[in-house]
Write a structure and sequence with these properties.
- The chain is of the alpha/beta class.
- The protein folds into three domains: 3-64, no CATH class; 79-352, Type I PLP-dependent aspartate aminotransferase-like (Major domain) (Aspartate Aminotransferase, domain 2, 3-Layer(aba) Sandwich), CATH 3.40.640.10; 376-495, Alpha-Beta Complex (Aspartate Aminotransferase, domain 1).
- It has 15 helices and 13 strands.
- It has helices at 11-15, 22-31, 38-64, 105-118, 134-148, 162-171, 188-197, 220-229, 288-291, 316-353, 364-400, 422-428, 447-465, 476-479, 487-495, and strands at 126-131, 153-157, 175-178, 203-208, 236-241, 266-270, 282-287, 298-299, 304-305, 405-407, 413-417, 431-433, 436-440.
- It has a seven-stranded mixed β-sheet, with helices on both faces. A four-stranded antiparallel β-sheet has the order 10-11-13-12, with helices on one face.
- A hairpin with a 2-residue loop joins strand 12 and strand 13 (436-440).
- Helix 2 (22-31) runs parallel beside helix 11 and helix 4 (105-118) crosses helix 10 (316-353).
- The radius of gyration is 28 Å and the shape is globular.
- The termini are far apart.
């Protein structure tokens, strides 16, 4: 049977077929529309549930045979499942509150403090955040280096993670690849040669704390010594890519120390690798004094600063990290690392005895697929129409109580004059820009919710009107003269 002709009601048979292609069936599921017949709808839903069940089995089978990538599958997240029902977003700078109230910054602070202590930097001297993965930590560290030294050159061993070279391309910074030994460790003689060839330009150095393929660790002390001996004493920035081993070294006896006591600028680590968080995430720690070069300004829309790479950040990740660290403690992590090292030695010996010779959230496509399949075009259209109706309703209600309001045609964003009451704005988590705020009428926003909002805002307006000096503000520059309810534009319209 051709993939294009697979019916959504024939999934059960196809699932058990050797010829079954998950990709083809999923594509078909997204394209076809929900039937109108009630019995067919039930059969179709059964097909969806069946497919998801088989996909779970597929993931279980793949997970049982996963050895090639550095991630821990020791997942014990049962107590955290309750938070999957919330849109937790740690948008912006974690140390600056925003107007988005559904966040997990309290967990993020604890996680950052833990890593700052691990890497020996005082609380009042560091800045950092929980990233969406190890690559983002590298982007952050190298960006700080580039901003501190705009004329600098990035030096990275050829075994460095691809994100290092990707960052160099994005930031348009010259990048010199340094040769490595067979172990994957940087060759310091070649590093020295390249430094001397470019002695007039500052050095931005990526130090690998465990390379991607071989797990090689560059000698931080040797790199610092080479920089100083080549005349770069105060003209270098070091970022340590510790995606996997950055968390391991502090727990291994006689391991080289990666610490902010040494002249490094930043360290990044992954959270979904050794710690086994279920979604890609990581941590980056910088020196607080260096962050000023990123020139963060207050973003009025979120009422916060933002020098992070991604802006919106997965608020689930800090909770998972906190839970893992809190549950295990230093000794628990130490025991787990020692067990990993023993098992690695065991595998090496066994292999010799038998003589054999580069994250995006993977759950997102599943959620998107399920939503598209469950609703279909007609369902999505109905939801959009409901949002538009609710947005129109909100606009009319606001204007009826004397509040400047406006919405663009075919938009679900209602713009209105910025409320005077800060507590009211925080309660409703309003995003503001200049003299106006807005409400985004999403599917979960009901008539009832909007009604309560307008009634509370109307009460605030009524209280202001008791002051004879109060007048409706002019926001014509923001919403147009024809929509402005200020006295000036009301008089102009009356005279026409």
């Amino acid at each position: 049977m051709e993939a294009s002709k697979i019916s959504c009601l024939q999934v059960d048979e196809q699932l058990d077929s050797v010829q079954f292609s998950l990709t083809n069936v999923v594509e078909r599921y997204v394209i076809d529309e929900p039937p109108e017949d009630a019995q067919a709808v039930l059969k179709r839903q059964h097909g969806i549930d069946n497919l998801l069940g088989h996909f779970r089995q597929h993931l279980q089978e793949r997970s049982a045979h996963h050895l090639g990538h550095p991630l821990s599958q020791k997942l014990d997240v049962g107590p955290l499942a309750q938070f999957q029902h919330f849109h937790i977003n740690n948008i912006g700078d974690p140390f600056v509150e925003s107007n988005y109230g559904i966040h997990s910054r309290q967990f993020e602070y604890a996680v950052l403090d833990w890593f700052a202590h691990l890497w020996e930097i005082p609380k009042d001297q560091y800045w950092g955040y929980v990233t969406n993965g190890g690559s983002e930590g590298n982007y952050d560290g190298l960006l700080v280096g580039r901003e501190l030294y705009p004329e600098g050159i990035i030096y990275a061993s050829q075994d460095s993670h691809y994100s290092i070279f990707k960052a160099a391309k994005m930031y348009r910074v010259q990048c010199i690849k340094i040769d490595t030994s067979f172990s994957g460790e940087m060759r310091y003689d070649h590093f020295r040669t390249k430094l001397l060839e470019n002695a007039r330009r500052p050095a931005i150095v990526n130090v690998n704390i465990g390379t991607t393929v071989k797990g090689a660790i560059d000698d931080l002390d040797e790199i610092i010594s080479t920089l100083e001996n080549c005349g770069f004493r105060d003209r270098f920035y070091i970022h340590c890519d510790g995606a996997l081993a950055g968390l391991m070294l502090p727990f291994i006896k006689q391991a080289p120390k990666v610490t902010f006591i040494k002249p490094i600028g930043s360290i990044s680590v992954s959270g979904h690798k050794l710690l086994g968080c279920p979604t890609p995430c990581g941590v980056v720690i910088n020196r607080l004094k260096d962050i000023d070069v990123l020139k963060s300004t207050n973003i009025e829309y979120i009422a916060s600063n933002d020098v992070t790479i991604s802006g919106s950040r997965n608020g689930q990740s800090p909770i998972f990290l906190w839970y893992k660290l809190k549950s295990m403690g230093y000794e628990g992590i130490r025991r787990e690392i020692e067990a990993c090292l023993r098992n690695a030695c065991y595998l090496t010996v066994r292999l010799r005895n038998v003589t054999i010779s580069g994250s995006r959230n993977g759950q997102s496509p599943i959620f998107l697929w399920y939503k598209l399949k469950s609703m279909g075009y007609e369902g999505i259209q109905r939801e959009i129409e409901a949002c538009l109706r609710n947005a129109c309703y909100l606009t009319v209600r606001l204007r009826n109580v004397g509040i400047n309001a406006f919405m663009n045609s075919k938009s679900i964003i209602v713009i209105f004059e910025k409320p005077k009451d800060e507590m009211f704005m925080q309660k409703w988590q309003l995003a503001c820009a200049g003299n106006v705020a807005h409400v985004v009428v999403m599917p979960h926003v009901s008539f009832e919710m909007l009604g309560i909002f307008v009634e509370e805002l109307a009460e605030k307006r009524y209280a202001l009107l008791q002051n004879k000096e109060f007048s409706v503000p002019c926001v014509a520059m923001d919403i147009g003269q024809e929509n402005c309810l200020c006295k000036l534009h009301e008089n102009i319209r009356s005279s026409l």
